[in-house]
Write a structure and sequence with these properties.
By secondary structure, this protein is α/β, with parallel strands linked by helices. The chain has helices at about 15-30, 45-55, 85-95, 105-120, 140-150, 170-175, and strands spanning about 1-5, 35, 60, 80, 100, 130, 165.
Length: about 190
């Protein structure tokens, strides 16, 4: 399975997140999954990539051509793709992936998650999405989503479009066994 992992590129995040990212990457490789990611060497992106690489897995980095700074890119990618724009990058991440995991991240990760969630809501894909809620990092995001549902800005069945987990084994098991039933889900009426 080709699994896209979104996550922070920050070098200053807590080491516990990085360790959990490496563990997730190692487990992905051990189970035969390919990492599809933003190509970064730091933060959660780098941690997951290091885990995949350490376990002998395959990695496809997709990074805009304007990122030309030494040390930013993970140098051990099996394949590195260099589109011209961030928009093209996000499209390639989506097209090359069978599912998506949102690890702790910042604005870029939020953007990627909400775009892939919106595309699923609109019926543009039926791939699994997991919010990897390490240490409760995404509790406030989940609270925001639930508040929007409670106030009827977002339909309640939006919850069927993503899964929340803080366990790497359970996250990957969900990805592997995922099936999507269109019946009664948001985009049925669009």
């Amino acid at each position: 399975m080709n699994i896209c992992v979104y996550g922070a590129s920050s070098e200053t995040i807590d080491k516990a997140y990085l360790k959990a990212g490496e563990d997730l990457g190692r487990l992905m490789a051990e189970q035969g999954h390919t990492l599809i990611f933003g190509g970064g060497s730091t933060g959660m992106m780098g941690a997951v990539a290091r885990g995949v690489y350490a376990a002998g897995g395959r990695l496809t980095g997709i990074v805009p051509s304007f990122f030309n700074v030494d040390g930013i890119l993970f140098e051990h990618c099996t394949e590195m793709i260099r589109p011209d724009t961030m928009r093209a990058r996000k499209q390639m991440l989506e097209e090359r992936s069978d599912g998506f995991i949102l690890t702790p991240g910042g604005i870029g990760s939020f953007d990627e998650f909400f775009e892939i969630l919106t595309l699923k809501q609109l019926g543009r894909h039926e791939k699994p999405i997991v919010i990897y809620n390490l240490g409760g990092y995404y509790d406030e995001l989940l609270h925001l989503l639930h508040a929007a549902m409670d106030k009827q800005f977002v339909r309640r069945d939006c919850e069927m479009l993503y899964h929340v987990s803080d366990d790497p084994e359970q996250t990957l098991a969900y990805m592997k066994t995922y099936t999507f039933d269109r019946t009664g889900v948001i985009f049925k009426n669009i």
